[in-house]
């Protein structure tokens, strides 16, 4: 089945506000840019994904998306991740993609091999919900872009997505994808990412570089 990846990306200067007690505004923007670049690079390596759609109003994102051969969907107003996801799904449906994988731009450890397994191992018509490490939020969705399911991201979205699928009587499954477990919203998430980077090699090079520069790696702190 033809499958498109969709990345909603917030403007970097507005990203990661909840890290305000941990990082300054400029550093947050730099980290957000690095994480997006790492996610984009890894998605490009996923054989099961036939196209990448990036939804953003950020100029740097537009440049990187163009260099990667991704389709850019301009998001000048930025009404939130869910609305950006809907814009991406509409474009995917218009281009006759049978499946769409919504991926967050702040999961720099994402593994293309795991994405391939997720896509190839999912039945047609099934909504696949990937939880965060807390089993509370949603870090990815695999679905029919022309179907009735609507992404509703935000706090508590895992339960909200499961309830929606049940209410609409859609086949659905909650599937854990280890490399999509850590998204970075809080200081604790950042510490979890730093620890995880010690165990992973060959991914998140840009994110590692930023964390090293600001002394947030375990090696730098030692």
| Number of self-contained structural domains | 1
Number of strands: 7
Q: Provide a count of the helices.
A: 8
Order the strands across the largest sheet as they lie in space: 3-2-1-4-6-5-7
Q: Let me know the CATH homologous superfamily.
A: Spore Coat Polysaccharide Biosynthesis Protein SpsA, Chain A
What order do the helices and strands follow? Answer: EHEHEHEHEEHEHHH
Beta-strand residue percentage: 15-25%
CATH architecture: Alpha-Beta Complex
Instruction: Decide which structural class fits the backbone.
Output: alpha/beta
End-to-end separation: 48 Å
> Regions with pLDDT < 50 over 5+ consecutive residues?
218-222
Q: Which topology does CATH recognise?
A: Spore Coat Polysaccharide Biosynthesis Protein SpsA, Chain A
> Helix fraction?
25-40%
- Taking all Cα atoms into account, the compactness measure Rg is 16 Å
CATH class type: Alpha Beta
Mean pLDDT: 93
Please name the defining characteristics of this protein.
seven-stranded mixed beta sheet, 222 residues, Spore Coat Polysaccharide Biosynthesis Protein SpsA, Chain A, 7 strands, disordered C terminus, alpha/beta
What does this molecule look like?
By secondary structure, the protein is of the alpha/beta class. The chain has a single domain (3-214), classed as Alpha-Beta Complex (Spore Coat Polysaccharide Biosynthesis Protein SpsA, Chain A). 39% of the residues lie in helices and 16% in strands. It is built from eight helices and seven strands; from the N terminus they run E-H-E-H-E-H-E-H-E-E-H-E-H-H-H. It has a seven-stranded mixed β-sheet with strand order 3-2-1-4-6-5-7, with helices on both faces. Helix 1 runs antiparallel to helix 7 (205-213).
